[in-house]
Amino acid sequence: MLLDCDEQLFMAYKRSGEKGTEKVLSTWSEAENKLQADPKILGTALSPNLFLVNEEIAMNIAFSTARKYWGHVTTDTQAFFDKQGMDAKFVHDRLNDFFYTQRGKEIFFEQLFAQHTMDFERLIWLIFGKRMQITMPVNELQTIFLYKLNNEYFVHMIYKEHTLFWHWLFMKKIYSLFIHKPLEQFTFIHEMLGHFEYSARKTYAHVNNFVNNYKKILDKCITYVDNYNSTCLEKKQLHLYQIVVHYRLAEGDNRCVKSLITAFEADWRYSMYALTEKEKVLIAYLLFHIAHQEKNDELVIQYGEYLLEDERLNNYAIEIMLEYKELLPNRKPTPPAIIKNYELNFLENLYAILLDHYVRTERYQEGLTLLKEHKLASNKKIHAALVQKNYSNEHFIAIEAYVQQDIALLVNNSLQHIGLSVDEWRRNYRLPEASYYFVAQSASLHILNILKVLFVTEQYELFEKLMEIYKKYLLIDDHFESLRVFISAYVEQE
Asked: Could you tell me the pTM of the whole model?
């Protein structure tokens, strides 16, 4: 089921491509004289009156479309269900119970309204209570989007057939909403613009220098929206999203990000919509990583300690991840592990970076305090040794056993045949082509920082045991040479 405007634009696209659709849009725009001037940042905008509908129509469009494409079992999907132990009659009955009852329709719309998106995988979880990876057949429905603005609804479908057109039209509609609708009517701005960026990448994947072009388009749109909207909470959310996008797409040049942050803090610090604690934490997190990239030791330590104080980052991490899914790496933390990729978890990465800068600035006592107060700064056995002063042989054996387990999971993702995994690791971890080469490099540098802190703060028993483990399982010549030079220089200095 298509809206009239979608159908007309789709027919024009099939006849003449994007130029054909823009011609249709220009014709509509000339006939519409009630809206403010169109800045044409992303071509000609649509009148929102063409695609915003009431709740009943939105529900009917979304549900009837889902039923048409997802309400029956194809040969391909039944083959998948067979592998899950679900026979055809069971699947058919469950789909009918869902798609041909008022209760099913209500549940569908409630989920779509709450999540803003629906795809076949999510639908199967909703009906059968199982998460399954479904490969959709060609020419089928991919995604349904739904957003509410004031008392109206924006519903849009992405299809496999001519998928670039549907992504292009989705972008066009979101752009048109921001151009023509008051910001106060928007909710979940960050999520809507995240979907906008995803569709932009799909639509313009072939375009050279996409990142710079996308940032320019976004900045022009936000500047235009600024000029036509008074100060409001939604405007602050829009500016914060702009900062995060520029940070994610900075490609090593953070001057624009820092400039945007400076302006953002100045604009909102004393307004009635002053920065919340969560927003301060988000900004500090960005500045922490920018300072690390720029090797600014003092700022790294300043922002790192701020984020750790009162567990600020940990307390707001879930909220930030919900709004900015790609910003905080959120692999489950692994307290037992010491050999791992620290960049995959935001807290483990924070501890590794902060410890590195403590060492660079010769703040070894602060480094020791970090290791004592936070298990994830090393691992729980090393942490226990420091806190409990447990230097027994049994405890050191346990530390080594944890290292062997780390290696086995990295090499074969299994704790069976640990000895064979360790042998394979020793043969290959220095080779750039090894899948765990980067993990070895990252872990080596972090363990050497721990060793430096332990040596200077005279934690000699733990230092000696950890050094023995390092040389046995993780020795990287140039890293180890830097430690040898460090210790020699420190001893001579003393």
From this structure: 0.91
